[in-house]
């Protein structure tokens, strides 16, 4: 009697167990489908946002091309005599007073002829073109592929002619002693080889866009960046505060690798804050000490835009390889990785 009851109860439970199992499987399937749908919607939103951003960028380029069309003849007039621009640049750099602490550096005022500088500021790409990157990590690298014609013309000239033909040789001549000392300290073989075959070039050129709340702590640039140059690009009315901070470093030491060398703020003492003035070029040897920058969270205006053009001077790829070949193995690892163009 009891056996038949038990058998009947087991028979009743088996369909219920199968039904519960099927329901669990269905819930898992529905959860997976919901997650897949959510991911698909998120991807669709990213695609739509990217399309919307590119549309806004193209509209901004078209608008700038219309607005700046009448300024093009004056731009061409400003660039018509490159040798005059070069003479101005060389004279400005030659007149700059060298500083030794916290590292060798120059502050070059009126670095470019005023009309050329104004053209660079006028040719800053519309801010929306920087929006492919997160706020306070935004930059664009000239010469541009996507920008108004005016921007492409003036910034292409800046890279190819002003930086490559005028600024680099003038800076290296002005800072010849500390630059050669830097090379000899790091690559002793140059004491016998000399500098005749050492090719230096500019790299890593980019226009930086920074806003409220920007902070970059004390650091040195990648080691292959022997000289760093920053051209400040204030627009009319921009505040000259919040330039570049220069620090001495307690218990300073060589960076252990070629990447940017970050240094604890507690070990840094502010020596100078170079004001963010129009047409000012800050040039420094990336050897010891540290530099940094910050913009307060409550800086005015609330939609503040701060532009600067950064580029670096260092050995080209072939020279890097040759210099590394002269080092013992324990020193080679200190130079592997980042190049002057990185970061």
Could you provide a short overview of the structure?
The chain folds into two domains: 1-78; 81-332, Jelly Rolls. The protein has nine helices and eleven strands. The chain has helices at residues 2-68, 72-78, 82-95, 114-122, 149-174, 176-186, 190-193, 317-325, 329-332; strands at 105-108, 138-140, 200-210, 215-220, 227-232, 244-249, 261-262, 268-274, 281-285, 290-294, 306-315.
Name of the level-1 CATH class of the largest domain:
Mainly Beta
- Tally of individual helices: 9
What structural class do you assign from the helix and strand content?
A: alpha+beta
**Spans of 5+ residues with little confidence (pLDDT < 50)?**
none
Given the C-alpha coordinates, what overall shape results? Answer: globular
Distance between the termini: 84 Å
Oligomeric grouping of the chains: single chain
Q: What's the number of structural domains?
A: 2
Strand content: 15-25%
The count of β-strands is 11
Strand order of the largest sheet: 1-9-5-11-3-2
Radius of gyration over alpha carbons? 29 Å
CATH architecture of the largest domain: Sandwich
**CATH topology tier name of the largest domain:** Jelly Rolls
């Amino acid at each position: 009697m009891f056996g038949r009851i038990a058998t009947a109860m087991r028979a009743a439970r088996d369909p219920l167990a199968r039904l519960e199992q099927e329901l669990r499987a269905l819930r898992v399937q529905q959860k997976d489908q919901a997650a897949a749908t959510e991911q698909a919607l998120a991807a669709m939103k990213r695609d739509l946002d990217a399309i919307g951003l590119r549309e806004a960028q193209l509209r901004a380029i078209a608008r700038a091309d219309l607005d700046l069309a009448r300024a093009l003849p004056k731009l061409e007039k400003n660039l018509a005599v490159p040798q005059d621009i070069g003479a101005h640049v060389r004279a400005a750099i030659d007149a700059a007073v060298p500083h030794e602490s916290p590292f060798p550096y120059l502050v070059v005022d009126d670095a470019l002829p005023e009309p050329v500088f104004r053209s660079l500021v006028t040719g800053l790409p519309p801010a929306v073109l920087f929006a492919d990157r997160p706020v306070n990590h935004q930059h664009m690298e000239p010469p541009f592929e996507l920008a108004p014609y005016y921007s492409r013309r003036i910034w292409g000239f800046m890279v190819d002619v002003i930086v490559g033909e005028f600024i680099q040789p003038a800076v290296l001549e002005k800072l010849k002693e500390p630059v050669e000392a830097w090379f000899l300290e790091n690559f002793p073989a140059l004491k016998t080889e000399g500098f005749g075959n050492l090719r230096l070039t500019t790299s890593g050129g980019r226009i930086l866009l920074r806003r409220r709340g920007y902070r970059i702590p004390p650091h040195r640039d990648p080691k292959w960046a022997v000289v760093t140059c920053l051209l400040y690009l204030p627009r009319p009315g921009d505040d000259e505060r919040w330039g570049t901070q220069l620090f001495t470093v307690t218990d300073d030491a060589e960076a252990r690798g070629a990447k940017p060398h970050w240094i604890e703020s507690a070990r840094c003492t502010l020596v100078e804050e170079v004001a963010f003035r129009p047409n000012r070029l800050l040039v420094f040897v990336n050897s010891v000490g540290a530099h940094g920058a910050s913009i307060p969270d409550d800086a005015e205006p609330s939609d503040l835009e701060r532009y600067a053009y950064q580029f670096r001077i260092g050995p080209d790829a072939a020279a890097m390889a040759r210099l590394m070949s002269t080092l013992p193995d324990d020193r080679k690892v200190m130079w592997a990785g980042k190049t002057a163009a990185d970061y």
